[in-house]
Write a structure and sequence with these properties.
By secondary structure, the protein is of the alpha/beta class. The chain has one domain: 3-Layer(aba) Sandwich (Carbamate kinase), CATH 3.40.1160. It has 9 helices and 11 strands. Helix 2 packs across helix 4.
Length: 249
């Protein structure tokens, strides 16, 4: 049941998870404990009455770009990466359903034995019924990242925000692990992200969000409860939006 005294800041959100999130501390594959924790956090948000869609990557298993650098055809490598996201999506579906929330996996590459084909209206209908929708296989096309898939699906389903889960607590002027003078940027404009090459999402994803005025919240998933805090309107992580004040150089 939703909290009686809580009013979520968002009605429909898209959560962008990297494959590394599922790997946890082991760095590869799927860590059952980490998977269960993510599922519980998603349930907390669903219990508030918020509609949740998820796009998941496959960096814990396979990277098409890395395979391309090793000599493999880029399109082939990307298709293999898309298939790996389906494995992650099925694992996440199982974990969310074990947490007590109905979930559907919709794949951009048809494989009806394990997932529904991606149809926009069907996805929105699932969300309206309170089901978590996990989008798999990226956009279904090579040469596009799962960041771009996340931005595309978010715009298609009318999400109010993209929640980009990372291992750091926001956007910094440099890598905080390598540069102790790096400064956190609470709010950043789309153009600022593109011009300064800030590692938020790839340029295609940022441009798509900018064109559709879709805000992005970059946050640390390793801190329990962060997803709920964002949903409740608390200032967590960094926000990329059109109304952000460019930081001082």
């Amino acid at each position: 049941m939703a909290d009686s005294d809580a009013t979520p800041a968002y009605r429909r959100v898209l959560l962008k998870l990297s494959g590394e999130v599922l790997a946890g501390r082991q760095g590869y594959g799927i860590d059952p404990e980490n998977l269960a924790r993510v599922a519980r956090e998603i349930r907390e948000v669903v219990d508030l009455g918020v509609q949740v869609a998820v796009v998941i990557g496959a960096g814990n298993m396979y990277r098409g770009l890395a395979a391309s650098a090793g000599g493999m055809d880029r399109a082939t490598g990307d298709y293999m990466g898309m298939l790996a996201t389906v494995i992650n999506a099925l694992a996440l579906q199982d974990a969310i359903e074990k947490a007590g929330v109905a979930t559907r996996v919709l794949s951009a590459i048809e494989m009806r034995a394990v997932a529904e084909p991606y149809i926009r209206r069907r996805a929105m209908r699932h969300l309206e019924k309170g089901r978590v929708v996990v989008f798999a296989a990226g956009t279904g096309n090579p040469f596009f990242t799962t960041d771009t898939a996340g931005a595309l699906r978010a715009v298609e389903i009318g999400a109010e925000v993209i929640l980009k889960a990372t291992k750091v607590d926001g956007i910094y002027t440099a890598d905080p692990d390598k540069d102790p003078s790096a400064v956190k940027l609470p709010r950043v404009g789309y153009i600022e992200v593109l011009n300064r090459g800030l590692a938020v999402m790839d340029t295609t994803a940022i441009s798509l969000c900018m064109d559709n005025k879709l805000p992005i919240v970059i946050f640390d998933l390793n801190r329990p409860g962060n997803i709920r805090r964002i949903i409740m309107g608390e200032p967590v992580g960094s926000v990329v939006s059109s109304d952000a004040i460019p930081p001082k150089r």
